[in-house]
Design a protein that fits this description.
Layout (H helix, E strand, L loop, with lengths): L1 H25 L5 E12 L16 E12 L2 E5 L13 E2 L5 E4 L4 H6 L10 E3 L18 E5 H8 L16 E4 L3 E2 L6 E5 L8 E5 L8 E3 L7 H6 L9 H18 L2 E3 L4 H12 L1
Length: 278
């Protein structure tokens, strides 16, 4: 009789645990992702994206995407495209001779196209602080800027004589060190992947309606061959850190069975666009 009692008790406990797991899956918040175009970048000297002469004489078209993540606890914007001064009729050839750049439209107009306003954002974060990711950053002044502490110090720290003007208006700051769970439920994770800059980071998003989670690369990779060859741009902050971050990134992507989106890749822009239509 005791054996039967304990057997029934064990079955009951297992049943409860399975029910709890099912409840957890059901209660997962609905997260939506929108992809927007922050600019067009035509690279006239692709060799700057390597430590050697691999791409000498080559050119490549980049896109410059930024993203809106909608979560029940608030909205997050990831990256900020090119400056709005580049919303011009003809592309601009910047002084270094490497990039031909142009932005299609303003932040306000682009957000309006998906039913958002600039004031709708609780959080703002960037993969890093290069000019093609900070374009409309100052317009996000009412949101809380989530940034790695070392990236903050390298751009707008108190000890700097010359601060990054593209970030001057951002006063609501949440400094982090390492990985960060934005909403506390595992659906939107900032992953620390330094090397391109001192505080470079990537973004993991579990999007409702998409089978695989989405993993946005920031500028860990710039195009497909970069990822295949583990190519490190000549202007990266630290080559060794970049390669270490690539290893961590690939391991994390495999662990999560994530859909990797290279943010500057026109091919991946279209791929994500198709996924978001489903």
């Amino acid at each position: 009789m005791k054996k039967i009692f304990f057997l029934l008790l064990t079955i009951s406990i297992i049943g409860c645990k399975k029910a709890e797991k099912k409840a957890e899956v059901v209660s997962k918040p609905e997260v939506k992702l929108h992809q927007l175009v922050g600019g067009s970048i035509f690279v006239k000297k692709l060799e700057v994206f390597s430590q050697d002469t691999l791409y000498t004489g080559q050119t490549k078209q980049f896109t410059d995407a930024y993203y809106v993540i909608s979560h029940p606890k608030g909205n997050l914007m990831w990256d900020a495209g090119l400056p709005e001064q580049l919303v011009i009729p003809e592309p601009f050839d910047e002084p270094s001779g490497v990039f031909r750049i142009q932005r299609p439209d303003s932040l306000a107009n682009q957000l309006k196209s998906i039913g958002f306003k600039i004031e709708d954002f609780k959080y703002f974060a960037m993969s890093h602080s290069h000019f093609d990711h900070t374009g409309h950053a100052n317009l996000m002044k009412d949101a809380t800027w989530i940034v790695q502490e070392n990236e903050f110090n390298a751009n707008v720290g108190d000890t700097l004589k010359q601060k990054n003007p593209a970030l001057a208006a951002l006063k609501n700051v949440q400094k982090i060190t390492g990985d960060y769970d934005v909403f506390g439920d595992g659906t939107v994770l900032i992953k620390y992947m330094p090397g391109h800059t001192i505080g470079h980071q990537v973004l993991y998003v579990e999007v409702a309606g998409i089978e695989k989670p989405v993993l946005l690369t920031g500028d860990l990779y710039h195009f497909e061959e970069n990822r295949t060859n583990k190519g490190v741009p000549s202007f990266n902050y630290d080559v060794k850190q970049t390669l270490e971050s690539m290893e961590l990134f690939e391991a994390f992507a495999k662990e999560k069975n994530a859909e990797i989106i290279i943010q500057h890749s026109p091919k991946d822009f279209k791929k994500l666009e198709e996924l978001l239509k489903k």
